């Protein structure tokens, strides 16, 4: 089994949901990102989504947009993000899913990216602006090197399309809990529970829920019915607030441990 499959298999055996934090690589700088990844893993993160910055992150709200701007200003590139993953893999085996937009990948070269990402130790890829129907070039290259192409689904996805994409999905499905951009609304668990449970009845692939989850209580509420809980903007705000200060890693650890505690109490 892959690292992603192993994590979800082990959590299902323990009747637990996965904690999946998101952060932007290079915010505030790449060296700090490496330490943040290790801290997240040590504090209980089951998988980590690592954003590679892009100048026009259309699906992201102001918090993650600003983190992309800071990362780009710090000189972060997709090539440097892969170098970061290579470094982290020397002592950290938490599954890493790169998350971002198609343009940087296109400029890098899809086939070259797949080979380099696999060599670095990337486990999955999530492209926010590339519909599955148009992603064949990417999915073929990823499949050849064993990297999962993560599928995005939303409340606006028709049931038949949801069923078809659920059957084709790899790694886990990222279910967007609401329409709109990241970090601008609060999640309403009961409003999405039926859709997530319906989706779980269509596929054996785990379903993670993201957008609007900011507190341990949010995590617990969503973790009662989802296989995974994605937390992004709330973590990025902590990184923005503490920057490179000595308080950053302790504050991040405390936040992740609180989310993990919420998930543990949810079942």
Folded structure, characterized:
There is one protein chain. 50% of the residues lie in helices and 14% in strands. About 2% of the residues have low confidence. It has a nine-stranded parallel β-sheet. Strand 1, helix 2 and strand 2 form a beta-alpha-beta unit. It is globular, with a radius of gyration of 17 Å. The chain is an alpha/beta fold. The chain has a single domain, classed as TIM Barrel.
Q: What topology, given as strand order, has the largest sheet? A: 5-4-3-2-1-9-8-7-6
From the 3D structure, determine the CATH topology.
Answer: TIM Barrel
> Would you list the SSEs in sequence order as H and E?
HEHEHHEHHEHEEHEHEHEHH
Count of individual helical segments: 12
Tell me, what is the CATH class? Alpha Beta
Number of domains: 1
Q: What is the overall pLDDT average?
A: 93
**Which radius of gyration do the C-alpha atoms yield?**
17 Å
Give the helix/strand layout.
Blueprint: H1 3-13, E1 18-24, H2 30-43, E2 48-51, H3 62-73, H4 78-88, E3 96-100, H5 102-108, H6 110-120, E4 124-127, H7 136-145, E5 148-149, E6 151-153, H8 159-168, E7 173-176, H9 189-200, E8 207-210, H10 216-223, E9 228-231, H11 233-242, H12 248-264
Parallel strand pairs: 1-2, 1-9, 2-3, 3-4, 4-5, 6-7, 7-8, 8-9
Helix pairs in contact: 2-4, 2-12, 4-6, 6-7, 10-12, 11-12
